[in-house]
């Protein structure tokens, strides 16, 4: 409840309450917000308080005022560099995001031909498979599937938990030095399975990213396959004369 007896000004209390309501799904992405008068009645504050709180949320990029139409909930986008080696969630946490991990599946299995070729192992070898849902402030944004060679990381299965980073485990417990990664990005449409996991609509644009990570002697140590909601992420890359190269292809059936 908002209270004038708190040290925090009412407009800041309202701003925080509306922000939490957006994050928790009370107001959906793209939805038109109630008018200033309606919000004042809902939260028990004046129009001036509402106007200042809404302006703060517009400045943050959570809301957007459209002249003559009203105020709408915006999709918040993350910026992620394509040329980083470490995990997306590690990168985002380093930049102040509150990222959660939910393990959907974890098992030992035999790899497909593509996974085996990527890891330079046999299809008869065993890999550790982990499927996780990445969550930002309570909202799912990425489905992450990873494969690791069991012969090199025999105890990794037990060490992977929802509150741990596999990059930290590989670095600290297995002394892995990451040297480079190879990435393929494809634009696809969300399938029924992806939509069920990510909580998005079937047919929604998705970034599908296939990544191979190598150690200091160019041995592949991990393959990952990510499905990221396209409206929530912008990928960037900076290059120089000797810089890296990014190849982007379109393949609706890639995932």
Structural commentary:
This protein has 255 residues and is α+β, with helices and mostly antiparallel strands. Residues 244-255 have low confidence and may be disordered. A hairpin with a 4-residue loop joins strand 8 and strand 9 (220-229). The strands form three sheets. A seven-stranded mixed sheet has the order 4-5-6-9-8-7-11. It has a two-stranded antiparallel ribbon with strand order 1-2. A two-stranded parallel ribbon has the order 3-10. It contains eight helices and eleven strands. The radius of gyration is 22 Å and the shape is elongated. Helix 1 (10-23) packs across helix 3 and helix 2 (36-43) crosses helix 3.
What count of helical segments does DSSP give? 8
Mean pLDDT: 83
Morphology:
elongated
Q: What class, by secondary structure content?
A: alpha+beta
């Amino acid at each position: 409840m908002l209270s004038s007896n708190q040290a925090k000004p009412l407009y800041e209390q309202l701003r925080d309450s509306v922000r939490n309501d957006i994050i928790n799904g009370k107001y959906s992405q793209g939805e038109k917000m109630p008018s200033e008068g309606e919000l004042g009645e809902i939260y028990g504050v004046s129009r001036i308080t509402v106007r200042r709180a809404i302006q703060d949320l517009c400045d943050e990029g959570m809301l957007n005022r459209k002249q003559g139409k009203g105020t709408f909930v915006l999709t918040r986008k993350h910026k992620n560099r394509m040329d980083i080696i470490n995990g997306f969630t590690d990168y985002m946490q380093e930049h102040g995001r509150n990222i959660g991990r939910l393990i959907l599946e974890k098992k030992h299995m035999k790899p497909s031909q593509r996974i085996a070729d990527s890891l330079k192992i046999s299809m008869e070898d065993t890999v550790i498979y982990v499927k996780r849902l990445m969550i930002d402030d309570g909202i799912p944004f990425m489905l992450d599937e990873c494969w690791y060679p069991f012969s090199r990381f025999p105890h990794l299965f037990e060490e992977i938990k929802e509150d741990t980073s596999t990059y930290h485990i590989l670095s600290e417990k297995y002394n892995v030095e990451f040297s480079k990664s190879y990435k393929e990005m494809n634009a696809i449409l969300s399938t029924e399975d992806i939509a069920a996991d990510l909580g998005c609509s079937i047919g929604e644009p998705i970034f599908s990213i296939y990544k191979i990570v190598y150690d200091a002697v160019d041995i592949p140590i991990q393959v990952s396959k990510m499905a990221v909601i396209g409206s929530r992420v912008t990928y960037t890359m900076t290059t120089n004369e000797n810089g890296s190269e990014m190849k982007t292809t379109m393949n609706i059936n890639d995932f």
